[in-house]
Amino acid sequence: MPFREVNSKMVEATVGPGQKMFSQRGAMLAYKGEVSFTPNIQGGQGGLMSMIGRRVANEATPLMTVEGSGTVMFGHGGHHIQVINLQGDTLYVEADRLLAFDGSLQQGTMFMGSQGGVMGMVRGQVTGQGLFTTTLKGHGAVAVMAHGGVIELPITPQRPVHVDPQAYVAHHGDVRNKLSTALGWRDMVGRGSGEAFQLELSGQGAVYVQASEEKL
Amino acid sequence: MFRLQGSKVLAVDMTGDAVKAKNGSMVAYDGQMAFKKMTGGGEGLRGMVTRRLTGEQMTVMEVKGHGTCYFADRASEINLVSLNGDKLYVESSNLLATDAGLRTGTTFTGLRGASQGNGLFTTTVEGQGQAAIMSDGPAVVLRVGAQYPLSVDPGAYIAHQGNLRQSFQSGVTFRTFLGEGSGEAFQIRFEGEGLVYVQPSERNTIGGDV
């Protein structure tokens, strides 16, 4: 069930019987047909353990389940919305950037330390992602929020991409990321270029970058 | 080589050359890049002192390398300006990036500057090359001809280029003093030949309040 972009700040999703989708609570703008919205205490999929996991990881955004048949429009806070279609690969995104996603996608929580050990944890702190991030895996569509427009940059083994941690939105595919520092004596004396930390993404996939260095 | 990726991201393809950009405005790059803060905006000691004195401070970095570098700032819309030896006048806060070959400097704006809420000085960019300026909302470019002078709200003005004379126009009447002003008490009037960039949003100015 793909999302249709109404404009850059609104998406429309079609729900049919037997299909389910999750969205951030309160992000519904309008709907047509018979659609019900139930607050999802668990904050997504999985059982009680997943819920506890998310709570502990501070990746629990209030979600709701959208069921029924009809079309629903989503939008939130005037943020730009980017629709990402997943074909079997994994999307890594911060939970508070998630606007809505297909119920068929598998939701999980990833510990930043599992990618790169201690440096992974440091990276999480620097990028403001925290120690955990949300993963979505499978076939389906995800609507992600960002401040300002979003550009998609492909990552290939020959061309790693460096991203400003504050402008990073999400990435998918088989991508390794590490924090690269370009700290020099200039930064120590307060004459830095403001680009001391960068996320270096290498492998095969794509990264989404927003046109702003502000958080949501 | 400057190009726009969407309306809010500037992509610069570089092959060993350099560009000057607002400090910290890089959002992503591929290839090899080096970032260096240019003390005093690369205008030498005299330029640096002038900027300090005039309050037109801008922190600029020099980006050099091979590959594509992407710049954006606070989700502002970006406009590309090509310069062929002429001069672009722009507020330092609205300037995102320029070719390294362009010279930047400061100039006195007079009463216009004060009414814009930007101080009495503005930044000039001159030479051969491209510059990227930012606006709050998509900017319109208005052509000023000899027969067609243009009046602009000081809060919506962002930049101009060409051979233009500017004067300050005031529409203050007795109504303004009674608190019944239309909110359009001051305008900048451009005469001559050139282009003026106007944004669909107004900064807070003294003129906007009366």
UniProtKB/TrEMBL annotation, chain B:
Kindly give the Pfam families that the UniProt entry links to this protein: AIM24
Membrane-spanning regions, if any? none
Tell me the superkingdom of the source.
Bacteria
Q: Which Gene3D superfamilies match?
A: Mitochondrial biogenesis AIM24
The UniProt entry, under InterPro entries, shows: AIM24 (IPR002838), AIM24_sf (IPR036983), Trp_RNA-bd_attenuator-like_dom (IPR016031)
Instruction: Specify the protein name.
Output: AIM24 family protein
Species per Swiss-Prot/TrEMBL record: Streptomyces xanthochromogenes
